[in-house]
Every structure is written in structure tokens, then in C-alpha cells.
Specification:
The protein has 4 helices and no strands. With about 60 residues, it is mainly alpha-helical. The longest helix has 16 residues.
């Protein structure tokens, strides 16, 4: 089960880092099967070293 979470996290990460991304973080998480935002954020942080909300903030500043 853990592996599927990391596969979904990878898919979400690719979408969140895409220049075409227009969805909010919570919608991307839901799209890839994460119904618990805290769990998504935990897996994302462990895998990529920052919270998805931090990534969103960086993208807004670098616009």
C-alpha cells in the first residue's frame, strides 16, 4: 500500500511542477487519490523535502 502512495505522490508532484498546472494543491491531491491532506503533505515532504504548499508558494513568487 505504501508504494501506491508514493506512485500517486510522484504523479501529483509532476502535475504540481508542470508549467500547465492550474489546480490548487488540494485538488491535485484529491485527483491522485489522497483524501487526507495531512497524509499527502507528509508523504510529499518525506519524498521531496518540502510541503506541497511551500512549492505552491514558490511557484506564485516565481510566477
Amino acid at each position: 500500500m505504501e508504494t501506491s502512495f508514493y506512485c500517486a505522490a510522484e504523479a501529483a508532484h509532476l502535475e504540481l511542477t508542470s508549467s500547465d498546472d492550474i489546480l490548487p494543491v488540494h485538488e491535485v491531491a484529491l485527483k491522485w487519490g489522497f483524501t487526507h491532506m495531512g497524509r499527502f503533505a507528509e508523504i510529499y515532504r518525506k519524498t521531496y523535502g518540502l510541503l506541497p504548499s511551500q512549492l505552491a508558494g514558490l511557484r506564485k513568487r516565481n510566477g
